[in-house]
Amino acid sequence: MTGAILFHELTARQRIAALVDAGSFSELLPPPERITSPYLAQLGIPVSFDDGLVIGHARIGGKKIYLAAQVGQFVGGAVGEIHGAKLTGLFKAAARDKVPCVLIVESGGVRLHEGSSGEIAIAETMRAIFECRALKVPTIAVIATDIGAYGGIGILSTCCDFRVMTEHGRLGISGPIVIEKWMGKKAYDSANRALVWKTSGGKTKYLLGDADALVHDTADAVRDGISKFLGKSNAVSLAALKARQKDLAKRLKRFGAATDPDTVWKGMGVRNIEAASLASGPDFAALAKRGK
Amino acid sequence: MKKPTPKKPSARTVLVRLFGASAKGIDIEKSVLTGYAAVDGKKVCVIGTCDGTYIDNGAALRLAAHVIECIEKQPKTPIVMLVDSAGQEPNRVAEMLGLASYFGHLLSCLELARRKGHKLITVATGQAVGGAFLCYGMFADRIYALDSASVGLMPIAAMSAVTKIPAPVLEKLSKTMPSLEFGAAPFALLGGVEEVWSASDDIQAKLAAAITASSTEDNRAELGKKRGGRKLALDIRKKVLAESAR
């Protein structure tokens, strides 16, 4: 039904419906339970019956998964006490049942209106994610929207085994508006969309190795991307961390003085910037590989 | 009446308070702490920040390298993490290079340490705000704070500036919602800090006891409920676990 509509244009519930086997999704703590934020109510801000997070279990290709989808339209998908507790609970359930857990990210981070509660919830969820990883239960973050993964949720996304991104997805900590205010418009013009996406978008993250897959902006492509990782895990081992340490140090040395993202693109094997800018998903990946 | 804010001690003074003479084994380079010290005569590995510095990609790597070294060369040695950092400096190049991934790497190194039997204890000594606290300090087994530390998401003035909610409104609400209040004590009410240590405490004895009592079981939601600062989190989590087991 949603084949023609881009994945980033869908709502959280539509994304789930488009990704999983037909009729297989069963929501936990669904909206009829009306669990809403007392903080927002006190502040006179509209609440949502799911607190901006849809969680449940479903099947992809017949395989059971737990999944969560953040609702970007509701306070930017930001994490409050309830939203965060649902997320922690879901990853804990995944660890208990040894069922892979997929997080469809769309969040600017901690919900400021709820103060430190959301921050602690993110820290607790990180612990739960690593509980899964210790048990070799795959954890996958899908980052495919403009809101993307920022702040504490950006950090949390990097704690998962794998990240599936589209070119629309953005991964970072500080957003462009904050950086522009800090560094000035000359250093970072937040209205320059090309620059913003080349700074934090899926293509650059894929080139650097922070996204494990770059897929087209469709539900089918995202599902295929997820499926590839469902049977795998990325162990937290000494050998892997030593290799990562080397890789990140090398990256910093190579590109730490770069101001132009094209330097990174070229350095990571993109020969034709123009063509690569227009290419999507695996087509982009192929262009980058060619130059290596 | 507002209590006066305790005076901010220097980085070295804080280290000596925590580790006595053994604090000399801790290097301070560009406000990043790495080294080894002793607590109750037993060796501990120390990583951390001071002077309210910003943590950038390079700082995260230096902390991670020290954790890896400790895992390899000092098996099961407890790791004490000190936090006095304003967080990440908003910077385009840092973002382009994937600062979040550098933080994720540091967290992964700490996770490996935990799995390999290193106890992880955090002491918030100065600023422990937002991302600075999330990228290593809040990942400990048990978290403590000096009462002079600034702990929390952000001060009310900053929260007001971003949310456009007038500061007096937030100020008033924070009286009944400690989550909105900024500081070590309200953060402890949420369960985010196990215990706040005051200037008159024997900090070295406190730290030794903290290492002994440490457990890898995350108890923050339980504490938050028991102390009444974060009433919903534990029950919501339990509800998810119960509904998913059906």
SSE layout:
The complex is a heterodimer of chains A (292) and B (246).
Chain A: H1 12-19, E1 26-28, H2 38-42, E2 53-60, E3 63-70, H3 81-97, E4 101-105, H4 116-134, E5 139-143, H5 151-157, E6 162-165, H6 176-183, H7 193-200, H8 202-208, E7 213-214, H9 219-230, H10 238-255, H11 261-267, H12 273-278, H13 281-290
Parallel strand pairs in A: 3-4, 4-5, 5-6, 6-7
Antiparallel strand pairs in A: 1-2, 2-3
Chain B: H1 11-19, E1 26-29, E2 32-39, E3 42-49, E4 52-54, H2 57-73, E5 79-87, H3 92-96, H4 99-115, E6 120-129, H5 130-134, E7 142-146, E8 150-152, H6 156-163, H7 167-174, H8 184-189, E9 195-197, H9 203-213, H10 220-227, H11 233-245
Parallel strand pairs in B: 3-5, 4-5, 5-6, 6-7, 6-8, 7-9
Antiparallel strand pairs in B: 1-2, 2-3
Helix pairs in contact in B: 2-4
Task: Provide a brief overview of the structure.
The complex is a heterodimer of chains A (292) and B (246). By secondary structure, chain A is α/β, with parallel strands linked by helices.
The quaternary organization reads as: heterodimer
Structural class of the helix and strand makeup of chain B? alpha/beta
Task: Label the overall shape of chain A.
Answer: globular
What's the total helix number of chain B? 11
In the CATH hierarchy, what is the architecture of one domain in chain A at level 2? Answer: Alpha-Beta Complex
Considering the protein shown, what is the CATH homologous superfamily of one domain in chain A?
2-enoyl-CoA Hydratase, Chain A, domain 1
CATH topological fold name of chain B: 2-enoyl-CoA Hydratase, Chain A, domain 1
Order of helices and strands of chain A: HEHEEHEHEHEHHHEHHHHH
- Report the C-alpha radius of gyration of chain A, rounded: 19 Å
